[in-house]
What we know:
By secondary structure, the protein is an alpha/beta fold. It has two domains: about 5-100 and about 290-325, NAD(P)-binding Rossmann-like Domain (Rossmann fold); about 100-280, NAD(P)-binding Rossmann-like Domain (Rossmann fold). The protein has 13 helices and twelve strands. Helix 10 links the parallel strand 9 and strand 10. Helix 5 crosses helix 7. It is globular and about 70 Å long. (2R)-2,3-dihydroxypropanoic acid binds near residues 75, 76, 100 and 287.
Amino acid sequence: MKPDILVTREIFDDVLEYLAGHCAVAANQGDTPMDARTLARNLADKAGVLTTLGDRVDADLLAGCPRLKAVCNIAVGFNNIDLAACTRAGVMVTNTPGVLDESTADFTWALILATARRVVESDAHLRAGEWHGWYLKQFMGADVHHATLGILGLGRIGRQVARRAQGFDMPVLYHSTRQADPQVERACNATFVGKDELVARSDILTLHVPYASSTHHIIGRQELAMMKPGAILINAARGGVVDDAALAEALADGRLGGAGLDVFENEPALHPALAGMRNVVLTPHIASSSTATRHAMAMLAARNLVAALTTGQPPHLLNPEVRAGFPAEGPGPHAR
Ligand code: DGY
């Protein structure tokens, strides 16, 4: 008998067909967001679920899902899932590393260029019929070429961001929990510095760390005060790694030159001060959202789910200590 699974949001038809070949699927192609109670009701009798970042999986939810064996997130980040609670409940958790690195790095550059060169602000000006001809000092921005790029977190995505900086002749500094191997530093043309030095020397500071208690407000009031006057902050990583209230103050003060933000504390809510600021580019958590990449993420999550329920060995298992109902095999190769 096919295992029962839930897909919490709309996915691609071919991914759904692949899942239906292996599982009895309860789909949500109408894409109605599920609140916690609806998710709990729909998941109560399921063996597996494909989740997205809006679905909170915690001990309360798990308590009502005694048959659940696998939670497969369509994302590389998994801060919507209480991994420890899943492990205690014997539920496998997977993510989708690797397939979104390049698209997310591309989008980081879209934010860098749009923020530094005031693309959104000048587009709005033109559309509003306010352009009355060329003049010398119109919409002057900051040069990106030859500016110092600071990367906080030189993981897979941070490295792709660094590689792209070479075309702009930028010195690249980075800070990570561990210094990267020399060959990685050479490929990225990036120099390791302490976090404070990174913050203080960057003209453009871009964040590529996951959200965890250790990265909560890793850019807070103190760090913002250390940034160069006129510097630009880019966050396409996770809401909560930046203190949005402190950022709004630093932007309002005119200390910072601008910010490009794809993610927010308390998403989908936006700090009210940010919406009114002209030197801020705001996008709704779409850095990975090219058609090809979102498809690859969905398919990878589906493959994780089918493998979890049929073999107990999904390729991207985050808690290898759990192989619910399957013989132990040792740690999975791709845990983040
Ligand atoms: C992820 O995969 O974690 C991204 O934030 C989703 O786009």
